[in-house]
Amino acid sequence: MKPIYLDHAATTPLDKRVLEKMLPYFTENYGNANSQHSFGQTAKVAVDNARKTIADIIGAKPSEIYFTSGGTESDNWALRGTAKRYKDKGKHLIISKIEHHAMLTTAKELEKEGFEFSYIGVDEYGSINLDELEKAIRPDTIFIGCMYANNEVGTIQPIEKIVEIAKKHNIVCFTDAVQAMGAIEINVSKLGVDMMSFSAHKFGGPKGVGALYIRNGLDLGKIITGGHQERTRRGGTTNVAGVVGFSEALRLSRESLDKDNEYIKGLRDRFIERVESEIPYVKLNGSRENRLSNNADFSFYFIEGESILMMLDLEGIAVSSGSACSSDSLDPSHVLLAMGIPAEYAHGSIRFTFGKDNTLEEVEYTVDKLKEIIHKLREMSPLFKLNSEVKNV
Ligand code: PLP
Known about the structure:
It is built from 14 helices and twelve strands. The chain is an alpha/beta fold.
């Protein structure tokens, strides 16, 4: 059996149709989009078309789309840009406790520079606490940021309500839509959000390219100083092939959004149903209803997530323990801890994220192997021996 890839929240395979669109911009149309000659103009037209395609799909104007190197840079720009630009209005910013590290680490850096942050908690399903959010607002609050959907447990946030609260208090509102973009039909104008970040590799596009939507009229300053690219706000030669791939991947993913979501959800639900009925002492983390269609995140009590991950990998099955970005750290996931999951259970967590190329056969095989692995690990676990008499953990 060929390897089974169940880590689509970390990255997705590049869609072959996207690659086809990109290839000419590596070979014959390799011009720099800022050059005056015809090579440059061909590249510029491709970038302009890509910007327009993306803008049309998300309900923005082309002039509101700024290409970046991906979600991390876009998150950095939104947070750092607002802080620096509006510091005379105030030095207080609000984000959730379950943001991606691209946000949390930037916030920690900004704190060292004198900015103050409120980190808003979530309920047991990973949904942001709206009362706490509203109470945290101060006269000097200049930014509210909350991700659209969480990368670990897949919880979709009440983003319309968050925007409503921000607007009521006249505060700039940002959402990180890196995980949501390929799975949810997002329209920035209807939503009324001021900034939104995206990353192409999460929906069949290439790595290293993304965008920040910045509503016209909002001045975020520059993220990378250099040439005149991205209307002088983000210097650096444009990644022409990447941008072309980004727009094609988004177009294709929107074209088959409902069909893909239904198929992926079917696989995911079959997986959840079998794990819950066939493996004892497990907990599905996150919300059952407000959840990305591809995500199943489980805590397996009394054993380590890393051991499960390694043993599944030996069977040719790729999954993640916590988010890929923190998988080199053995600290329990900040998302699960914020949801009130005890550290010992958070340690035994595995994220399975499905994609449109997965099959039902792969799902059945994964559950069969998972059952064997969990059984083996628990046989060796002193914690399990101590607790196996406990009925309601
Ligand atoms: N934000 C979220 C919610 C993510 O899941 C990720 C990547 O996992 C990022 C930001 C970072 O995106 P990128 O890999 O494009 O830097």
